[in-house]
Amino acid sequence: MKNRHFQSDNSVGSILKNCMNILSVARSFSSLSFEISMLAKNGSVHAARVNRNEGQSMVPLVDGLAEISRDIGIEIETLKSDCILLSRKISICSIAIKRYYLYTRCLAICIASTSQGTEGSRVSGYPLNSDADDSLNSEMTYDFVESLSKWFDSLSPDQLDNHQKRNMEHLALKSRFNRQQIETLAGDSIQIIENATKRLTMIERSRLTMSYIASSISINTPNLKSSADRFMDLVENTLDLVHQIEKEQDELVKQAQMGKVLLKKLLTRKGL
Amino acid sequence: MKSKILFESQKHQWLVLGRDSEKQKEVVDTNEYVILSDENVMLLDPGGSEIFSQVLAALCRHVDIEAIKVIVASHQDPDIVSSLAMWLDLCPGVKVFCSRLWTGFIHHFGMGTAMELIGIPDKGMEIPIGNSGNSIFAIPAHFCHSSGNFSFYDPIAEILFSGDIGAALLPTSDTDLFVEDFESHIQYMETFHLRWMPSSAALREWVQRVRNLRPVMICPQHGAIFQGDNAEKLLDWLESLEVGIHDDLSNPELDQRMAQLRNNRDFSV
Ligand SMILES: [Fe+2]
Ligand SMILES: [Fe+2]
């Protein structure tokens, strides 16, 4: 029983940890999105200041950088909201998992204590015999709740009093409700992860374009006499931000994949 | 998990659940008390989430879960009421009572579930057992051990639920629900009281308050129950106890390590 118990706690723990990591990426996105908006503004300012005689070729590049920064900023803001929503869904889901686990465990204890001595009595997911520990150790499945009514039918009237039967039915209903909640929330979360993954592909494209424009600006900068330093700063800031976006993006991809695996385990009814 | 009826009249019953032989050894053993009064159920310190399934399974044999109307918490510790989120989910409309000091803290156990949490004022209050027309009374027990702490007295059963006061950490081999030999029971209570109870004055005040009630049974949250003469002996013993005492806390090794780290920092800055 001890092992089962810790196994379930670990599953809930992994999901909660994943949820905290996603939330922490959302926080990093929040400060990134501010820096990107500053970069977009700087780009516009630089473009306006270009000396028309010496740097005509820089105008479309700097304008382009400002525009792409604005676009990537909007995407990152949306991604941040997705992460916050995702972490909220997962955390509510983990509460439902805890409840589901504790209710079905209670049902298993009730069944084991009632069935002691009734040989061959079985509830799907909890093969019952005289050893209560064995029945609690067996893998928990989602068929358990549905099998209860059949189990009630298999009992003689003196084996279960009215209190206990009513309470077990109440628990079975609550377990079913929690199971439905887990399925809905896990499904919603997977959908958010998939949308976020698509958004990450778009960000990836914009990030590469940003990096390309920054390199082009850097190639053209030595031709400028008066504002070369300012442009080199812009390039440096841009590349620095591109690097940070890449880092956070990688982390989110990693966490999203991990989250998806954990949630799919739940939906395929194997994980807990 | 064992269960036993402690008091029974026509429409009023006290039940204790405890001594779970299957509980994990890392988790402290607790007693959960239940009052069933005219079809209304009250739980007193329903316990931690680690033992929730066992408590619920034991309770299922005796009462209708949906008849649970009131939960009282003697104080804020996790072994008292960290299972609250589950009870709130199973028994909608349940009223929860705890010291006014802890309402904001106990909300953390609710996992976001809406709850009616009523703060008990420092001087105590009468708490109705649902619609039964009967009540229990919150008796101040502050600083024994928690700073916002209550015992609960039922004038019909003449039982006092004392929370951590009178608690004993018993060996697993000891499965008696009642104290048989008070003198030999002291060894299991002494360390707990000396270390967990911070104030001898508060403990003596509580003893005075409880003497006036003359309970026939004193029921702690851990360990065996005191009845008859043993309840009286417990009060005498608590009155004589000098608590809030701990060993010498000097720790030169730790002091040296902190000084070392502080010095390193000064050099590197
Ligand atoms: Fe405590
Ligand atoms: Fe305690």
In whole angstroms, the N-to-C terminal distance of chain B is 60 Å
Number of helices of chain A: 6
Strand order of the largest sheet of chain A: 1-2
Q: Look up the CATH topology of chain B.
A: Metallo-beta-lactamase, Chain A
Q: Mean pLDDT of chain B, as a whole number?
A: 94
Indicate the overall shape of chain B: globular
In words, what does this structure look like?
The complex is a heterodimer of chains A (272) and B (269). Chain A is built from six helices and two strands. Chain A has one domain. Helices cover 82% and strands 1% of the residues of chain A. Chain A has 272 residues and is mainly α. In chain A, strand 1 and strand 2 (126-127) form a beta hairpin. In chain B, 47% of the residues are buried. In chain B, helix 6 runs antiparallel to helix 7. In chain B, a hairpin with a 2-residue loop joins strand 3 (32-37) and strand 4. Chain B has one domain: Ribonuclease Z/Hydroxyacylglutathione hydrolase-like (Metallo-beta-lactamase, Chain A, 4-Layer Sandwich). Chain B contains eight helices and 13 strands. Chain B has helices spanning 52-60, 78-81, 84-90, 103-106, 182-196, 200-213, 229-240, 252-268, and strands at 2-8, 12-18, 32-37, 40-44, 68-72, 95-99, 116-120, 125-128, 135-140, 150-154, 159-163, 217-220, 226-227. The site of one fe (ii) ion (FE2) has 5 residues of chain B, from loops. One fe (ii) ion binds next to loops of chain B.
